[in-house]
Design goal:
binds 1-O-phosphono-beta-D-fructofuranose; 49% helix; globular; binds manganese (II) ion; seven-stranded mixed β-sheet; alpha/beta; manganese; single chain; 7 strands; protein carboxyl O-methyltransferase activity
Length: 439
């Protein structure tokens, strides 16, 4: 274990902090939306999933209302129902183990405003899933699916602009100089970065889409990339041996962000900079907009039915998936309340699988929180230091700052940014393309 002294963890016990406001205001709104949605749609869900689902909706509503009350009155967390025999990604044991270890460390049960922000926020999604899971016909129901799908449909113009660009770059690849290719690739990393600006959890499940073509704003946005390791990243990509160009992509949100990620991966594949890709989605409805395997497959199918460049590119995605160059790998570790420094102990198989990749790309703010332990690091802490015991292989974080820690800045940099924008670390307007090679 590295010798790392720890700052405190971000916590909702810190009144007025972003963590506090999330648990006090944003999470109850997300829960209320799910409750209203299930109640409103109970008849149509009954028609779709059978009569028992209609009654089931009422039970789920009652469980979720109970949880909302527990949250708002700062009650103890509960153990999850365990084991969940028909759930292939049953992680209830890990959740209950986290509960027990909290009790043995602190001598009391975790509570909504006393546990860490990361633990509390992740726990809410585990409980939403449990509430549905306990109702047989709704066991696999995703209450956020409609929102995720709508956010993609509403981003159609931006998606078309993106796929047109990918298509024209790919068809001219052989005539590009290495420098031209570099410019294209790095721009697509930026598109994937800004694709993370908007997620449905930060908007408490309110509407969120990419309405305009992001390509035209990249230059203007570049100064908002507060850590930009793009040049080092390019050096790493071009120096990979031909038989070791395997990328692991730990996905974040469905909708425009997912399309931007897959477009980036398409260029890397077509340019030969990547030969195989493993995609890691979530295994339960998560932080409203996070992509599950079925969202990923829906996205590919949806785009495939488009005429024009979108259809062509999604057809490529289908063939990558069917010939095995792209794999989808599900792991229950992503939806536990643990940060990634715990991965080698709690999920050694996942850790060793990730370690074999040439590069792991972590998308989004929550992944960044889990990479850095969600601790209150001074912003000039070295990224490698903040990763603590998580050292699988070179890794890249691509995220906009929406409340989690920020590390790797220059001394004084955060002060300068704050003087321009007080909310720079929560509003998603600032981003990071941050590499750690552990060298
Ligand atoms: O991981 P993502 O999708 O980029 O962001 C998830 C997120 O919006 O959820 C939390 C607020 O509820 C924040 O930590 C974080 O910004
Ligand atoms: Mn997300």
């Amino acid at each position: 274990m590295m010798d790392v002294s720890h700052p405190p963890v971000l916590s909702p016990s810190n009144i007025g902090s972003f963590a506090y406001l999330t648990v006090k205001d944003r999470l109850p709104v997300i829960l209320t939306r799910v409750i209203d949605y299930l109640y409103r749609e109970r008849i149509s869900l009954g028609l779709k999933y059978g009569e028992a689902a209609q009654e089931g909706c009422k039970e789920v509503v009652s469980r979720l209302s109970q949880m909302k009350n527990e949250m708002q009155t700062n009650k103890d967390f509960q153990l999850l129902w365990s084991p969940q025999p028909n759930n292939p990604y049953d992680d209830s044991e890990i959740w209950n183990q986290q509960f027990e270890s909290y009790v043995s460390t602190y001598g009391v049960s975790p509570k909504w405003f006393a546990a860490s922000w990361l633990y509390a926020e992740c726990y809410m999604y585990a409980r939403i899933h449990e509430a549905l899971y306990l109702c047989d016909p709704l066991r696999d129901f995703d209450p956020f699916e409609e929102q995720k799908q709508k956010s993609l449909v509403d981003s159609q113009i931006a998606v078309e602009a993106l796929t047109d660009k990918v298509s024209s770059i790919c068809s001219a690849l052989s005539s590009h100089t290495q420098d031209q290719l570099k410019q294209h690739v790095l721009k697509f990393f930026e598109v994937s970065l800004w694709g993370n600006k908007c997620d449905l959890s930060i908007s408490s499940g309110g509407e969120c889409c990419q309405a305009e073509d992001v390509f035209s704003s990249l230059e203007k946005l570049r100064s908002n990339i507060i850590v930009n390791d793009s040049n080092m990243l390019w050096q790493l990509l071009i120096s990979l041996p031909e038989d070791q160009r395997d990328i692991a992509l730990v996905l974040d949100n469905a909708g425009f962000e997912l399309i931007s990620d897959l477009c980036l991966m398409t260029i890397l594949m077509e340019a030969g900079l990547t030969t195989s890709l493993t995609l890691y989605p979530k295994t339960r409805p998560w932080f409203v907009s996070d992509a599950l395997e079925k969202d990923l497959r829906w996205t590919v199918d949806k785009l495939r039915s488009n005429s024009g460049s979108g259809g062509q590119i999604a057809t490529k995605w289908s063939s990558y998936l069917s010939d095995g160059r792209w794999k989808i790998c599900n792991s229950k570790f992503w939806t536990t309340g643990y940060d990634y420094a715990e991965m080698s102990k709690l999920s050694p198989d996942l850790y060793s699988q990730l370690s074999k990749a040439s590069l792991i790309i972590f998308k989004g703010d929550l992944n960044y929180r889990k990479l850095t332990g969600d601790l209150e690091w001074p912003t000039d802490t070295k990224f490698e230091y903040a990763l603590q015991d998580f050292r699988p292989t070179p890794l890249l974080a691509v995220r906009t700052a929406k409340g989690g820690p920020v590390v790797g800045l220059l001394p004084g940099q955060s002060k300068t940014i704050s003087s321009v924008d007080r909310d720079w670390n929560i509003n998603g307007d600032y981003g990071m393309i941050q590499l750690c090679t552990f060298s």
